[in-house]
Amino acid sequence: MPEEPPPPPPRRDFASLYRETLAPLRRYLARLLGNPTEAQDVAHDAYLRVYPTSHDARILQPEAVLYTTARHLAINRLKRRSISPITRSPAGSDSAPAGTPDVAQQVMARQELRLLEAALAALPEGCRTVLLLRKVELLSHREIAARLGIAISTVEKQHARALRLLRAALPAETVPAAGARKALS
Questions:
Q1: What whole-number distance in Å separates Cα of residue 41 and Cα of residue 61?
Q2: Where are the domains positioned within the chain?
């Protein structure tokens, strides 16, 4: 009796594919292109091209399709770069890019906002209150302590705990880099 082939791995939805592959894909493309900003652009383009096929049951390895697509886009970008290098246009030039984000950036921003809202909702009440007073109302620790009628050290501890819990709850690509973390404190 012939052996049955192993069952295919369970299908993942596009959102989980995106969450699991975004950071490694950006790192791969940054090494390939030598520019993290270009890597982010190429990664977004790759996700846009792969999304229509993400529900196709015939695709057994969507990560492979994603990485292959991203590699081809990166190679095309490198070819274009060597043909006509990008130069900065003078300020006020008509060829300046528009200030509005494209559709992909808007979709990704909404997804990141939903993740942040869920992480904030999961915080303990005191931590969430202190964090919102600090980040939204821009109050100092002393002002928060006076408003809530608690010790300044309690405010500091709850603020630090809230930030620690958010870092743990959010995917790595949405958490600011170490240099930017100081600015958020």
A1: 23
A2: 14-83, 104-184
Q: What percent of the chain shows pLDDT beyond 90?
A: 25
Q: Which distant-in-sequence residues (6+ apart) come within 8 Å of 139 by Cβ?
A: 133, 147
Which two tokens mark 171? 């995917």
- pTM score of the predicted model: 0.41
Nearest to 107 by CA among 7, 1, 29, 18: 18
The token pair that represents 170 in the structure block: 């959010």
Q: What value, to the nearest 5°, has the Cα angle with vertex 42 and ends 115 and 55?
A: 60
Query: 16-74 pLDDT, tens per residue?
Result: 878 888 899 999 999 999 988 889 999 988 888 888 777 777 777 888 888 999 999 99
- Its CATH architecture, for the domain 104-184, is Orthogonal Bundle (1.10)
